[in-house]
Amino acid sequence: MNEEEIAIEIKDLSKEYKMYRKKIHRLTETIFPWYKKHGVFKAMNNFNLTLYKGEILGILGRNGARKINTS
User: Fold this and answer.
1) Which of 6, 15, 37, 57 could form an S-S bond across to 25 if both were Cys, CB 3.0 to 4.6 Å?
2) Are 51 and 71 in contact (CB under 8 A)?
3) How many CA atoms lie within 13 A of 41 on its CB side?
4) Nearest to residue 17, comparing CAs of 45, 51, 59?
5) By CB neighbour count within 10 A (0-12 exposed, 13-18 middle, 19+ buried), where does 29 fall?
6) Residues 56, 68: contact at Cβ < 8 Å?
7) Is it the case that residue 59 has pLDDT exceeding 90?
8) Which ranges in the chain belong to alpha helices (H)?
9) 35 contacts 47 by C-beta, under 8 angstroms
């Protein structure tokens, strides 16, 4: 397929969350940014997706709720 037929293209998408053991650690980092008290959870790393015109994508979440994108 050629590039003109691409409806959605995602390249190298990543998402990380800071994980704190205690609520006070989040406050401490806010006040003192150099004082790191968090770990990192990588929810997604280098995700790639290409949808072409006319294709349908269905996504099922953890709770089973449907999230559907139609092009």
Assistant:
1) 37
2) yes
3) 6
4) 45
5) middle
6) yes
7) no
8) 23-31
9) no
For residue 70, the model assigns a pLDDT of: 56
Distance CA 22, CA 37 (A): 9
Q: What torsion, rounded to 10 degrees, do the Cα atoms 21, 24, 26, 27 define?
A: 180
Residues 52 and 6 sit within 8 Å (Cβ to Cβ)? yes
Spatial distance between the Cα atoms of 49 and 13, rounded to a whole number of angstroms: 9
- The domain locations on the chain are 3-70
Q: Give the three-class secondary structure for 2.
A: coil
* Burial track 36-68 (b if 16+ CB lie within 10 A, e otherwise): eeeeeeeeeeeeeeebeeeeeeeeeeeeeeeee
Task: Supply the mean pLDDT for the chain.
Answer: 86
- Two tokens at 37? 């008290």
